[in-house]
Amino acid sequence: MDQARSTISKIFNGEPRSYTRFNLTQNMEGENSQVEMKLSSDMDEEAVGGNGVGEHHNHVRDPYAVHKPAGRTPRNLCFMVFASLLILIIGYLIGYLAHRRQEIAPRCAASSVPMEESITGTIVETGAAPLMDWSDVKSLLQGKLSDSLFETTFTEFASDSHQAGSDGDDILGNKVLKRFKAKGMQTWKDEHFVKLVAPGSEPNRVTYKGSDLGSLSGYLAYSKTGSAQGAVLHGNYGEVDDLNKLQDKNIALDGRVLLVKAGKIGFAEKVANAAKLNASAVLIYPDPADYTRVGGSTQLYGHVHLGSGDPYTPGFPSFNHTQFPPTQSSGLPTIVAQTITTDMASKITSNLGGHNAPSGWEHVGKLGADSDMVTVVVNNVLADKKITNVFGVIKGFVDPDRYVVLGAQRDAWGPGFASSTVGTSVLVELARAISDMVGNDGFRPRRSIVFASWSAGEYGSVGATEWLEGYLSSLNMKAFSYINLDRVVSGVMESGHFAFFPVYVCCFFCSMEPLRLNDPIYPFITFSGIPSVSFRFTSGFEYPYFGTLQDTRARLDAATSNQVAPMAVLAARFAGHMALRLVHDHLLRLDVDRYNAEIRSHVVTINRKVQSLMRMQPQLLPNVLTVRWLMSASGSYSRASRSLSSDIMNSDLEDVEMCRSINDRIMRVERDFLSPYVSPREAPFRHILVGSGSHTLKGLSDHLDALEKSNPGADVDLFRNQFALATWTIQGCANTLAGDIWSMDNLI
User: Fold this and answer.
1) Residues 438-457, buried b or exposed e (16+ Cβ, 10 A)?
2) Residue 724: how many other CB atoms lie within 10 Å
3) N or C: which end of the chain has fewer CB within 10 A?
4) How many CB atoms lie under 10 A from the CB of residue 404?
5) Which of 446, 455, 429, 467 is nearest to 394 (CA)?
6) Which intervals hold domain Transferrin receptor-like dimerisation (predicted)?
């Protein structure tokens, strides 16, 4: 290169300040890529001028000086020809290598690097990627998913023992990693050191009227340990309405051992509801009417942490270098809890006295008398475990720093075929199929796709939540959607059940479910503000083997009429279509307008209750309290969402910056519904619409009910404060959705 510089300098009169810039511009399917080669002397100045290809600038000290042309000898001519050829060759090689690097960037060699660098380490394009027709994308995916491939994957990932943090869990994690690397995906691991629960050296015990009910192997992780005694009281499913019916009968729960059926709500919610009414313990059993195919001796496993993640590092990640303070989650139960079998429960229910059950409580006779004494002993122990999340990424071509995440839990209490094996198989098969589409078929996703295999899902989405806590700032405005693959197949396709916000899905045989606290997507929405979706295909009844050691391939075959593989293919296509559409289109298909009805419904309910309370007890709420500002904030959000829809209709989809700006406005909506006025540590589920706590709109409504009933825990000043903060949270979301500051409709 020094010889070339010297030669060029000599050719052009030996001018010491000459500066040559070659700006090689290639049009690669609508994208401008510029490569510069600079040849300069020992001066550091840069020429200022145009950007033409092969443009040449001479900086002359005296513009009026007379230059004597160099003699055109054969030797000079040879140097000129040689230099010209050299420049052309170098320019061609640089242009080719730059073009080649962009083509292969999304399929990097497998490696283990930090998350942020793995996803966004290389910006691969600056222009709009050429669109493959959506029908072609769907056809490509369909052709790469088959029953036979899934059967092979089921065999590879089926395991009888892979509890979180065990050797079996690690073996499966390494298999997932190997699969990702085999497709050329960039991979990385994420390790956390968490506290999980295991049975103690002394077994848990339950006695009824002095008689031991039998051996217990099932348990509830994170239950309070110790013993509790009290008169048993049947509480149906342990829902709030169930316990209110007991109170309506003037039956107090103080000191009682509450016996409840499994189902309808999570174990943690049942225990929390009982603890609020001062029960001493909770026993949970599978009712034969709900668990028709489960034997009388089947043991149940689960957890009772009213939250997600490691409850001993609430709000921050359990990394090895984290300095753990002496703290614990407010969602940990304050009473003991234990599961019992159907046969054990029958020994209790068949001998109960006391009041008759409220009407509508099926298969419940007597509620229990003061003489029906039960003792519950829980000897579970905490165990420090290392868990590992495994990731792979397919990078986007336009916005590689924006990504959709597909995830599935890898661990299970036992075989866990429906709870973990199917989801993990769908995850790796989708990773294989989409990698092939990018590498072999010319599909170029605009945004990145991250595939995640979580550990410790059975303990309350511990692995996923620790990842969210560890990378909260990195995920902000980058992860635009999460698609959950847990438990996607539990029956044949008679119906599909969905729980999500605010993705819009059209289905001929589907029913919608409210978002539940024990759903794996709950922390993604309510803690991190990431729009998420859960779905599953069922036969119209609950698969009864979740949370048992009987969740095997044979039982899932029976529940699906031997259609496990075809249903897994269908689930993979469904999840794949959602993910691919989100990375294929110019604009994200997230319907922000769907929250309008949700907000208005809460506003109407709160307004009605406020007006009623002001009429009945005007001394509680002074006249200065008005719902007008909340209504105004609701109206601002509605207008902002309509304005965004108008901007989308009038946008130029080929304008990359405009599309990115609109997508950023869409992505901020879910995040901005997280109340900025509560601590993620004290109230991690900050989403005011689907989260939990006094800061939510439902919390405001419940607080009004408590005020009306003169509940001792009700506080007028606290209500007014939370009311104002919730109002401004909605207004702030509307302001963000509006976009530029001069477009905001701030009427408060």
Assistant:
1) beeeebbbbbbbbbbbbbbb
2) 15
3) N
4) 24
5) 446
6) 630-737
Q: What is the distance between the alpha carbons of residues 300 and 583, in angstroms, rounded to a whole number?
A: 40
How far apart (Å, rounded) are the C-alpha atoms in residues 248 and 222? 31
Helix 422-440, helix 564-584: angle, nearest 10: 50
Summarised one tens digit per residue, pLDDT across range 144-189 is: 999 999 999 999 999 999 999 999 999 999 999 999 999 999 999 9
Res. 628: pLDDT tops 50: yes
Residue located via tokens 């299970």: 412
CA angle 405, 410, 415 (to 5 degrees): 150
Structure confidence at residue 57 (pLDDT): 37
Rounded to 5 degrees, φ, ψ at 711 are -65, 135
Q: Enter the DSSP assignment of 366.
A: B
CA gap 207, 344 in Å, rounded: 10
Note the pTM of the prediction, 2 decimals. Answer: 0.81
- Angle subtended at Cα 343 by Cα 338 and Cα 345, rounded to the nearest 5 degrees: 50
Provide the H-helix boundaries in 617-676: 628-649, 656-672
Per-residue pLDDT tens over the stretch 323-333 = 666 788 989 99
The upper half-sphere exposure of residue 219, i.e. CA atoms within 13 Å in the direction of its Cβ, equals 24
Residue 454 tokens read as 């979580």
> How far apart, in Å, are the Cα atoms of 590 and each of 113, 509, 665?
31, 22, 11
CB 695 within 8 A of CB 686: yes
Structure-token match 């409210």, residue found? 514
Residue 237 has pLDDT above 50, yes or no: yes
**pLDDT classification of 739: cutoffs 50, 70, 90:** confident
- How many CA atoms within 13 Å lie on the side-chain side of 98? 20
From CA 510, how far away is CA 445, in angstroms rounded? Answer: 29
Exposed/middle/buried for residue 500 (C-beta within 10 Å: 0-12, 13-18, 19+): buried
Q: How far apart are the first and last CA of the chain?
A: 66
- Dihedral sign for Cα 680, 681, 684, 686, please: negative
> Where does 68-146 have alpha helices with state H?
74-104, 115-120, 134-143
Is pLDDT above 70 for 582?
A: yes
* Main-chain phi, psi angles of 423, to 5 degrees: -65, -45
pLDDT band for position 41 (50/70/90)? very low
Residue corresponding to tokens 């039956």: 251
